[in-house]
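Following up on my earlier message about adenosine-5'-triphosphate. Here are the inputs again, as you asked, copied directly from the submission form:
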Amino acid sequence: MTTAPGGASLLEIRDLDVTFTGPRRSLRTPPTVVRAVDGVSLDVRAGETLALVGESGSGKSTVARCVLGLVRPQAGTIRYDGRELGPVDKRPPELQRAVQMVFQDPGSSLNPRMSVGAIIREAWQVHPAVAPAGDRREALAAVLTDVGLDPGVAERRPSALSGGQRQRVSIARALALRPRLLVCDEAVSALDVSVQAQILRLLIDLQASHDLTVLFITHDLAVVRQIADRVAVMRKGELVELAPAGELFTSPSHPYTKGLLAAAYDLEGVEAPFRETQEQMS
Ligand SMILES: Nc1ncnc2c1ncn2[C@@H]1O[C@H](COP(=O)(O)OP(=O)(O)OP(=O)(O)O)[C@@H](O)[C@H]1O
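Thanks, got it. Here's what our run produced:
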């Protein structure tokens, strides 16, 4: 965790609405409509790690996908460094590059037929100015070293690596484009707890060494505790609480946050300081 930066906003999300329309079950029934994101406004400050938490289905990934330009909101705006972020294919190259994502499952997000080196070089084919052609061998070794991998893994395929190593490759691929904002969607959720801790440590170190701002999506409060400067809590598409991490864990203000904390403590077998609240809610 970095010292909580109180700096300017790098990312400004305002009044974001996303509705998904599902298929009709029959000609007589209306299509199902899901309000995935409902009026969310949120700032991510330069240099901080903001964790976006909430139960499954609360809308966290949809917010992340809007930031990446993969989902088009029905309403609202997203600005990066003061510039409006549209759909990914309409973004100028420098904005596409500046906002990168690390997904949950590197097993499916890394092409199994490509070597690690080819996966990373592919990013530079799209954005050649980041690593001029003559320098790519050194740049590849440097980015792999940055994420704690031996440059020799460039020759190997993702399937020959462990889950933790694969996630390091995903981080290297994002880092290769020198982003300022890294969106991590459940980036450590598929990993064993000990490997999780190593990847979180890596992200914390990279944030400091590469001057990154991180939007970290997770349902896991134990992870939040390790990495977040501030925490935003979503419930049923709405933002219900936003607080510095220390404050949220010691004195959550929203009953839903209290319930989430109580449930997390229960799962870990630790006495739940907020269990009473949870019982009152049920
Ligand atoms: N492409 C889609 N089409 C239809 N509904 C969707 C789509 N993507 C998400 N949803 C619905 O929107 C709601 C929010 O989903 P979202 O994935 O953003 O939540 P989440 O908090 O990230 O949950 P999880 O951690 O399970 O991914 C859910 O009800 C989900 O089923």
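One observation from looking it over: Confidence is low (pLDDT under 50) at residues 269-282. Hope that helps, and feel free to reply on this thread.
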